[in-house]
Amino acid sequence: MACVLKVFPRIAFAAVLASAGPAFAGSMSAGAQAFQAQCSICHRTAGKAQAAVGPDLFGVVGRKAGSQQGYAYSAAMKHSGLIWTPDELKLYLANPQKVVPGNKMPFPGLHDSTRLDAVLSYLETLK
Ligand code: HEC
């Protein structure tokens, strides 16, 4: 499948970026930097339903899981019945496969709680 071919090189790239981590300096907030390093490879935040590896995350906080128009979610995500409250997002981002078994986000989870909080604060600005 075409999307599988697209996803794998990006995982390798995301891993390189993730290990670069805090080396991203500049005036961005810690959350924006962490998002840039670990999420932006797959997620746009412009609020437009453009094709990317993952759904656009504009307005994700408070949104029903699997509801971004125009994005082809996995059945697992579409039928998860979750609402992305800050608490639910934290649980998901710490361990995506545990919270939505069978979802197709190829991301192992954010295990550093400071970083997780920072990414969450950043997601809350996307509205
Ligand atoms: C290698 C690609 C990739 C990376 C890296 C990645 N994601 Fe995802 N993400 C996806 C895909 C693909 C989905 C769709 C999952 C599905 O449909 O099962 C997704 C789904 C999501 C969802 C659910 C959105 C919705 O509309 O229900 C959230 C929230 C999310 N990702 C946040 C993040 C955050 C925050 C990061 C960084 C910490 C991140 N993702 C890193 C690919 C990725």
Describe this structure in words.
The chain has 127 residues and is mainly α. It has a single domain, classed as Cytochrome Bc1 Complex, Chain D, domain 2 (Orthogonal Bundle), CATH 1.10.760. It has six helices and no strands. It has helices at 2-20, 30-38, 75-78, 86-94, 96-99, 113-124. α2 crosses α6. The longest helix has 19 residues, at 2-20. It is globular, with a radius of gyration of 14 Å. The mean pLDDT is 86. The structure holds heme C (HEC). The site of heme C has 30 residues, from α1, α3 and α4.
Q: What is the fold-level CATH name, i.e. the topology?
A: Cytochrome Bc1 Complex, Chain D, domain 2
- Name the helix and strand elements from N-terminus to C-terminus, one letter apiece: HHHHHH
The appropriate CATH architecture is: Orthogonal Bundle
Q: Percentage of helical residues?
A: 40-55%
N/C terminus separation: 33 Å
Which of globular, elongated, flat, extended, rod-shaped describes the shape? globular
Briefly characterize the structure.
With 127 residues, the protein is mainly alpha-helical. Helix content is 45%, strand content 0%.
List keywords for this structure.
0% strand; binds heme C; 127 residues; single chain; 45% helix; mainly alpha
